[in-house]
Amino acid sequence: MELWQTPSPVRAAFFDADGTLLSFATHEVPASSCKALRALRRAGVRCFLCTGRSPSLLDDIPLELFDACLTMSGQYCYAADDVFLSNPIDREDMRQVVAQVREGRYEVLFMEPADSFLSGHSILADRALEAANMMHVRVEPAERALDRDIYQLNVFLPPEDMAVIESAVHNMKFTRWSPNFADAMPANGGKAAGVEAALARYGISPEEAVAFGDGGNDAEMFGAVGTSIAMGNAAASVKELTTYVTDGVDDDGIYNACIRLGLM
Question: Is 165 exposed, middle or buried (0-12, 13-18, 19+ CB in 10 A)?
Answer without folding.
Answer: buried
